[in-house]
Structures are given as C-alpha cells and as structure tokens.
Amino acid sequence: GVVGERAASATQVVEFVVGDPPTVSLSAPTRINPSDRLQISSVASALPTCEALSLGEGSCSASFRWSVVRGSVDLESVVTGRDLLTSPMLALERHALQGGSYVFQLSVAHYVSGTTPGLATVTVQTNMPPWGGSLTVSPSTAVFGSPVEITSSGFTDSAEDLPLSFRFGLCRGGESCTSETSYLLTGPQTRLSHAESSLPKGNLTIVAYAADALGAESNVTTGAQVSLPPLATAAATLEFAQRQFADSLAAADQSGDGN
Description:
Blueprint: E1 23-27, E2 31-32, E3 38-45, H1 50-53, E4 62-70, H2 75-78, E5 90-92, E6 100-110, E7 118-126, E8 134-138, E9 141-143, E10 147-153, E11 165-172, E12 183-184, E13 194-198, E14 202-211, E15 217-227, H3 234-258
Parallel strand pairs: 2-7, 9-15
Antiparallel strand pairs: 1-3, 3-5, 4-6, 6-7, 8-10, 10-13, 11-12, 11-14, 14-15
C-alpha cells in the first residue's frame, strides 16, 4: 500500500536559572544501623571567585544549608557540634534515625544577590534490627544452684543481614534491663540461640540479645524466680559463687581473644 505522510512531535522543558549555580556532590554510607553515627560530606565546585565578581574577600564565602526531604527527623535536635547545619559536613548523633529511608539535601549558594543555589541529595537507608523473637526459661521457677535452659526463638531479619548471633543476660526484677545494665550469663555473641546457666536467688528478668551481621541488635525478656533449697548450706552457696566467678573469667577471656 501507499504510505502516507506521518508526523511526530516531542517536547522538552528547559529551566533557565540566574547566574551559574555551584555543582554539589554528597558522600554518605548507603546503609547504616540506627546506633551508628551518620556523617555526610560534600564537595562544591564552580563557585565564582572574588575576582570574577569584583567583590572583596568578605563576600567570597559560600552558604550551606542541610535539610531532610524524605523521612521524619528533626535535624536541629540531633546534629552534633555547633552550626553544622550550615557547614559542608553533616553529622548526626547515634539513634537519630529509626528504621526506614531518608533523603538529605544540601543547598550551596554564593553570597551574591540573585545567585541560584546548587542542590544535591543523598539517600540513606537504616538497617532494621532482628524482630519477632521470643524467650523461654525452663524451669521458670528454679532452685538455687540448679541449671536452667534459656532458649530464644523466632527472631528473623532480611536475608542480606543474616546470620544472627545471640547472647543472654539477667537483671533483678523491676530493673530496666539493657545491654549496659544487665549481667551477661554468656560470653561474646555466638550463633547458638540457647544456653544453660545457673541463676542467682531472686525475682529475675532474663534477656536475650539478637544481632544481625551488621551489628543491629534487639532484645526480648522473660521472668524467672529462683529460691533457696529447703536445707541450703553455706557450702552450696559458696559452690555456686565459685562457679559463677569461673564462668565470668572464661567469658572475659573469650572476649579478650576476640579483640
């Protein structure tokens, strides 16, 4: 057949800006743990010189301004140091970011009226710690000096963050149980999700810490009660104390070997 005339069209929008905006690039880790400090550095080029602008030295500084364009974080409350929201580098405190994706933006402009600022953004993804775990102590009501079985189960994480490692500790009932306040029942983290240990007398909180390959950690707790046997003797108490002391020394030796 006869091919008739055909027409096609395309459009493109071009935005013209005033002046010669600086070229800005940012450097940051693409993925971090919430417990890590975040640092974002910048490089700005094509800033006009004093000679080109016929200005004095005092007018040749560039202004920097950081902001968050995606993600919920108050930079004013988590930035470290003074005036870092207006400097070429951004540094945030530990735990400033929770799970999720954040986009940070830096605006760089020369101190000249009407000059368009240069912009750059960078995306940072925070690593979620393991989730979904549970903890059991058997028996949960134990006799002083008798070992109990502590088992953590159900923790999971993204495939790229495996394998998980575990450690176990205890706190006195009613205390806030954290990695800083708990007494560790085991040494450095291992792949084992269970442990056997003797417990001191009292109303206790047992805690299991699960960490992924990047070091992000979460924990789960459960209660246990340990009472003295009907005819507890000083010898039995001394034997338990000696065993706990030996376990502590062994754990400390293992930790030192790992450094």
